[in-house]
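Quiz preparation item.
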């Protein structure tokens, strides 16, 4: 990813996140960060035609755009912890995971993305049933 591409992506994301965060009060921003922690903040998608390095660079730009959006709004003073966390994550994200999280050839999110709505509904029902059975066997319900 060239610097020009990064700058363009940053500008687009900055505008998007400024609009998003500007319309939220402190509680809603807190809820947004809590709800989106896994899918928006702690993970990134590697597209079929993209390398891991490119996906990581795109992810870093996204985190920096979020931080800059928060800094540009009147809420910046109360969002300093989130701003610092976002900048830290952008600075310390590496292109190589410390250990393989998903076995080679297995990509759970891609599998979910390829499911039809009916298959997805069945998958959720199966997961719910399995979790319920496990909780019952452990005597937790």
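Solution:
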């Amino acid at each position: 990813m060239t610097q020009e591409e990064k700058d363009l992506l940053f500008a687009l994301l900055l505008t998007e996140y400024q609009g998003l965060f500007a319309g939220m009060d402190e509680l809603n921003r807190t809820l947004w960060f809590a709800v989106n922690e896994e899918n928006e903040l702690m993970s990134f998608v590697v597209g079929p035609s993209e390398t891991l390095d490119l996906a990581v660079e795109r992810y870093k730009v996204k985190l920096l755009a979020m931080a800059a959006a928060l800094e540009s709004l009147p809420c910046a003073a109360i969002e300093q912890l989130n701003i610092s966390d976002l900048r830290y994550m952008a600075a310390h994200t590496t292109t190589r995971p410390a250990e393989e999280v998903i076995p080679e050839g297995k990509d759970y999110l891609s599998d979910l993305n390829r499911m039809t709505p009916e298959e997805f509904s069945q998958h959720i029902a199966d997961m719910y049933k399995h979790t319920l059975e496990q909780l019952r066997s452990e005597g937790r319900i």
